[in-house]
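Researcher: Last one for today. Full complex below.
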Amino acid sequence: QQPVQSPQAVILREGEDAVINCSSSKALYSVHWYRQKHGEAPVFLMILLKGGEQKGHEKISASFNEKKQQSSLYLTASQLSYSGTYFCGTHGSSNTGKLIFGQGTTLQVKP
Amino acid sequence: EPEVTQTPSHQVTQMGQEVILRCVPISNHLYFYWYRQILGQKVEFLVSFYNNEISEKSEIFDDQFSVERPDGSNFTLKIRSTKLEDSAMYFCASSLAGGQPGELFFGEGSRLTVL
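Model: Here's the assembly. Have a good evening.
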């Protein structure tokens, strides 16, 4: 079942912060975050594992609350290069590695 | 840096024609996937492939679709009789491990336009 992301779109000024949320109605094994720029392939940002482990990537970090079946992506001091569509992808208990992606959150960072 | 490569980058075809999209996954990866993305929409799972067989497929992946790994390096997606609604960007992806939460490496995509 598809995870649900919120908000659908965010517009920021450079240097501002944003939070993107991802929630699932099913038990999660892990959560992936990807960023896709217009006309390009999705690019991996990070994986969040069971246990609420936080992972970081430059000024982008994320958390995973397995009880609530939610993950949040935190973008601090946003840069123009952060613009794009962010997708969370969730693993269930499947061993196939299949990711089901949310509908995406479009982030636009303006100067 | 190793990468997933896809050909063609863009294909235009007539409705009812067969299309084959090709992918070369990263050489030591074990799991292969096809996803599609209709313009402006989310990335949808089509099929996963491991050990020379389909391990999982979505409802979208009906009898018109097939995948194979004919020679140990290429991974192909065939659409037997294309429909207008098959127009989309098709992404191939591979990962080193599937049971472990492995990162998916995506190719640049093949844009399919069905007229």
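The mean pLDDT of chain B is 92. The first strand of chain B starts at residue 5 and ends at 7.
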